[in-house]
Structures are given as C-alpha cells and as structure tokens.
Amino acid sequence: MSDREKNVGFAASLNILFTIIELIGGLLTNSLALLADAMHDFADSSALIVAWFAEKKAKKPATSKMTFGYRRLSLLSAAFATIVLIAGSLFILSQAIPRLFNPEPVNAEGMFLIAIIGVTINGLGYFRLKKGISQNEKILSWHLLEDILGWVVLLIGSVIIGFWNQPIIDPIMTIGFTIFVLWGVFKNAKGTFNLLLEGFPEYIDIDEVKESVLSVEGVKAVHDIHIWSLEGETDILTAHIVVEDKYLARPDKMRQSIKSKLEKHQIEHSTLELESEGFCSGTECIFELKK
What we know:
Blueprint: H1 3-29, H2 32-58, H3 72-101, H4 108-129, H5 135-164, H6 169-196, H7 206-214, E1 219-229, E2 235-243, H8 251-263, E3 267-276, E4 288-289
Parallel strand pairs: 2-3
Antiparallel strand pairs: 1-2, 1-4
C-alpha cells in the first residue's frame, strides 16, 4: 500500500468516525451548526471513500486499452469531492437561513466538547494529507483544513452562546462557514477542471520550457508544443523540434539532450518529433525560432 493510499485511507477513517459522533452530538445539543457540519462531513467522507478506491485503482499498470494506466482516476475523485461539497454546502445554506429569523436554544456545553474533539481529529487527518503532492491529496487536505477552521469557529461560538445566551450565533456561524467552504471549493475546482480538460498545468511556465529546448545545441526551433498532466503530478509533453541537419544523424542523442532539459521542469514523459530545417519551412509552419 502506497503512502498516498495510506494517507487518504487514514483521513477517510477519521472522517467517518467523527461524522457519526457529530451527528449524535448535533441531535443532542439541538445545534444546526453541528448538524450542518455533520452533513458536510458526510459529504467529505463519501468523497474520501471514493478517493481511497481511486488511489488503489490508480496503481494498476497500463494496458492495451488504458495506455496511460489509471492515474487519472485520482483526478476524477478530486472532481467528485468538489461536486459533493458544492451540493452539500447549498443544502446547508437552505437549512441555516430560516434559523436567522427563528433562532432555537442550543446546548453550548455539548457544542464546546464536540468542537474540541473536532479540532483534534480533523487536525490529525490534515497533517497526514498535507505531506501529499497529488491533486487529490491537495483537495482533500483543503477539506480537512476547512473543517479545522470551522471547529475553531464553533468553539468560539459555543462560548458566546453559553455566556451571553445568543442562539442566533448558531445559524450565523453555519452560514459564514459554508460561504468560506464554497470559496475554497471554487478556488480548487479551477485547477482540477483545468487538468480534466487537459489544459496547460498552471505550475509550468511554457516560455521557460521553450527556452530550455532552444538552448540545446543544434536546435533551431520548436512548434506544435503541447503540455498536460494526468493528475497534477505526472506531466506529459509532445512537440516538433527543428534541428540542424547534421544532428539528425544521431537522433537518439539529440532527443536525450532535450529530455534532460525537460526533466528540470518536472516533465517526466515526452514525445519529440525531430525535423530538418528544410522540412519545416513556409507560411504553413509557424514555430518559435531560436533568438
């Protein structure tokens, strides 16, 4: 079992356990904030379970039909987690807004105790996933960080309710926390769906990649360059490279020189088509010339 799989599995187990504790606590304390967060954690747990299965499947090798293997499943589970959180957050808002006009009494002492447990359990999961580098682990660690901050707010809110008898704090906390969750989800969703659509990875500078390729001795130009990522970790490049004719006698050496440059940009897999200067000429061939 890989470290990534262990991290996701550990976070999933913690989240499932605490969702049950939180649901019971919300019913006993009559706190909408706790019940709403229980729904949120249930959504997180579902996403974590899907992520755990995706990480297990992603280890399988490539086949004749799945030539890139199953690594992209990790990215799909991250997208699933995003969709679940958006739907859950909208439901939470629909339940919290009416309570602004009709606040109900809550058990502040029970909220305080559960909030302490929440910070501890979600903190363990967050620091475990924070070490990961895949898009899936980043999305899930953000979910747990949201939970930690939410529990800190609930902790403070329970103190205010207990000392000043202000039950309206409960729906206010719920709405504020949910808006914060949606902000984080949309922020992470941009990167996830960009990778799903095979957009250019945000963490790679295409101009720097071109300059690195053009710095190789014998390279005259590069065109039709495409870079994408399977899951935010495994990056792939295809490009047409125009080289001086004398270097075409040893194409493997030229390709290896270029690949060495690409590896410095964390591009592990590259497919390079070498072309002579005469082959790529005329207005139909637009490319980046070496300066």
